[in-house]
Design a protein that fits this description.
A twelve-stranded antiparallel beta barrel has the order 3-4-5-6-7-8-9-10-11-12-13-14. It has a two-stranded antiparallel sheet with strand order 1-2. Helix 1 packs across helix 6. 21% of the residues lie in helices and 31% in strands. The longest helix has 18 residues. It is built from seven helices and 14 strands.
């Protein structure tokens, strides 16, 4: 990086001054391949969670069956370059409904540009006994082609704030995401205006802004049928190394699992249950 450039390359064990990251030792990992070359060429990404009709309908009737999450990852021009698929088994997925903070999950990311179909990244979150500030969840990201874990993402405890720490394979913090708590999209999510989005700033270890991440409600139809389905727009900004870009891409998916994966249509018997009840008090008398 050059002074004042705010471009985040790939250091480890680094001394930091504003806008410049000075490396004392080189990064040991040598991870490459077409998937990394593809990420290196991107300045933005669009991550679109895919709606599952079985999950949506079962939530409406108040008996939601948790299906595996899927995400289409595209360039700014709409070309699909990755596709992410949750690999958690069926029974464990249902556990997420009652203990979302503790349940484990895993997800594979396929490289699909130009007709390719190769698994290149794997995200794994182990089961934890998470309560408030204890045992906060961590997800590890592995490059499947080299079988190396090159980073992790954690959700540290923060009072009235949404924060995430991104670390490299040496457990050194390289990025932090901050969403605050006073956003319309958090307090009153709706499919239009400022209520349709939640914005996160990406900062380097010195606190300098290097990128942005936005969670956005796709449209009115999906919001009412499957309100837990979201899109994410990633602006890498000054993040230049493909391994860091892969971590930011994984961060968006981790955010979705942590805070935007609950379907309110399933609450209190679902929409069909509320309609059958009539008054919502459970006695079926309509009053």
């Amino acid at each position: 990086s050059s002074p004042g450039s705010n471009r985040l390359d790939f250091p480890s064990h680094c001394g930091v001054v504003p806008s410049v990251v000075h490396c004392k030792t080189p990064m040991a990992l040598q991870v490459g391949g077409p998937h990394m070359d593809c990420l290196a060429a991107q300045q933005t990404l669009q991550i679109q969670e895919q709606m599952n009709i079985i999950e949506a309908i079962t939530a409406i009737i108040g008996q939601e069956i948790e299906m595996g999450n899927k995400y289409k990852i595209s360039t700014a021009g709409g070309e699909e370059i990755f596709f992410a698929v949750e690999e958690t088994d069926c029974m464990t997925r249902q556990f997420k409904q009652c203990c979302p903070d503790c349940a484990p999950w895993s997800l594979g990311i396929m490289y699909t540009q130009g007709g390719a179909n190769q698994k290149v990244f794997h995200m794994k979150r182990d089961a934890t006994c998470t309560c408030c500030c204890f045992n906060r969840p961590v997800v590890e990201i592995m490059d499947v082609t080299s079988n190396q874990i090159f980073g992790s993402i954690s959700d540290p405890f923060a009072c009235c704030n949404l924060t995430f720490d991104v670390k490299d394979h040496t457990d050194q913090e390289v990025l932090a995401a901050n969403g605050g708590c006073c956003q319309w999209g958090l307090c009153c999510p709706l499919p239009c205006g400022p209520c349709a989005e939640v914005n996160f700033d990406l900062n380097d270890p010195s606190g300098q802004g290097v990128g942005k991440l936005k969670k956005k409600v796709p449209n009115c139809f999906k919001f009412f049928l499957a309100p837990d389905v979201d899109n994410f727009n990633v602006d890498f900004g000054g993040v230049s190394h493909p391994q860091y870009k892969a971590l930011v891409m994984a961060l968006a998916i981790f955010m979705d699992f942590r805070y935007f994966n609950d379907n309110p249509n399933d609450d209190e018997g679902g929409i069909m249950g509320a309609m059958a009840d009539g008054d919502g008090d459970g006695d079926g008398d309509g009053f």
